[in-house]
Amino acid sequence: MKTGVILISHGSKLSSGNDGLFQVADMLRSMNRWDMVEAAFLQLAEPEFSEVVKKTVSSGANRLVIMPLLLFKGNHVYRDIPEMIEEEKRNYPQVEFVYSNNIGADERIALIAADRIHEVLVEKQHGNRERIEQPQAIVNESFEIIDKLVNLDSVPELHRPIIQRAIHATGDTEYAYNLVFHPLAVETGIRAIKSGKNIITDVNMVKAGITNGPVEKFGGKIICKISDKSVVDEANRLGKTRAIAAMQQSIHEMQDGIVAIGNAPTALFELIDLIKKGLAQPALVIGIPVGFVGAVEAKSALKNTTMPYITNTNRKGGSAVAVSIVNAIIKLAKEGQ
User: How many C-alpha atoms does 71 have within 13 Å on its Cβ side?
Assistant: First the structure.
C-alpha cells in the first residue's frame, strides 16, 4: 500500500504566513517514513485540498492520511475538514482516507513556548548583567534555567538528574518527555558502577566524555574497541560496520556492566541480537544512537527486550546524550557510597 500524507492548514493572504506549512512538510518528507508528503490549505492560499488529493492519488497513493496542522479543535477540525474528506471519498472510492488528530494541547507545545519565552527574555536581558565565567556558576545557572523550563515533579526521583543532564548536554528540552526508562534501569546502572563492572561504548567519543576516575575507583574500566585492529579487520572481512564487530568482540568485557551506544544504530541492533542469543549479558543498555537510518528502529527493538535500558523515542540522540546519561548514573553511584 502506498501512503500519502496531506498536511492541511488554514492559509493566509501573506505568503510568509504559508511558508511554515511547506517547511513542516519538507521536514516530514526528509524522514522517509511515508511515500509522499504534501501541503494543502483550507482557504486564501494554494494548493487547495482537492487539488492535492488529486495529485497524490495520481502519483499512486491508495491511502491518504489527512493531518490538520492546527493547534486546537474548532470548526475546521470538527466540521470543515471532515466534510471535505467525505467529498473526496466519493471522488476516489478506491482510496482509504485516514483522518488524524490535530496538534492539540501537547506538552511539547508548552516546551516550545517556554523556550521562546526564555529566548526573548535572555535577549532582552543580555548586556545588562555581568558575564558568568566561573565553571560551577555556569553549571548551577544552567540547571536553574532547566528547572524553570521543565517540570519534572511527576518523574521518578532517580530519573530527574539523568533527564536534566541530557537537556544540559544538548540544550534540547524534548528530553524531558522522550527519554524512556526501564523501571529498573537507573538502580541497575548504579549497582553495576558500584560493583566495579565495565562500561562499554560504541565509539571513542562516548568513551572520552565519561568521567573515568570514579569508575576506576570502583574497579571498572571504560572500554571501546571500535579502533582495535582486530575489529577493523573483522569488519572489512564481513563487509559490515566496525560498530558491529566491536560489539561482538566486547561480549566478555560487558558482562553485568553497562553498554552505552550514542552513535551507531548497527551497534545497538547487534547488541540486541547478542542478548537474545544469550551471548551477551550486560546489566544495562543505554541505547541512544542518532541518525536517519535505523536509529528509531533500533530503539524500538530495545524497548521490546526485557533488558534494563534507557533510550528515547525519535532519531535524536548522539554521543553527548549517551555521555550525559552515563555520567549522571556515575554521580548517583558516588553520592550513594
Answer: 6
- For residues 260 and 201, the answer to whether their CB atoms sit within 8 Å is yes
Longest CA span, the chain: 71
Spatial CA neighbour of 248 closest among 231, 227, 265, 229? 231
Q: How far apart are CA 79 and CA 160, in angstroms?
A: 42
Mean pLDDT for the stretch of residues 108-116: 83
Q: Is 118 a catalytic residue?
A: no
Cα 283 from chain centre? 23
Catalytic residue among 10, 168, 182, 252: 168
CA 130/CA 60 separation, integer angstroms: 61
CATH for the stretch 3-99: 3.40.50.1400
- Partner residues linked to 173 by β-bridges: none
Confidence of residue 106 (pLDDT cuts 50, 70, 90): confident
Each residue of 192-213: b (16+ CB within 10 Å) or e?
Answer: bbbeebbbbbbbebbbebbeee
Q: What is the pLDDT of residues 63-79, one digit of tens each?
A: 999 999 999 888 999 99
CA–CA separation, 273 vs 298, rounded Å? 11
Mean pLDDT of the chain: 92
Class of domain 154-335: alpha beta
Domain ranges within the chain, ordered by starting residue: 3-99, 106-149, 154-335
pLDDT in the model for residue 337: 58
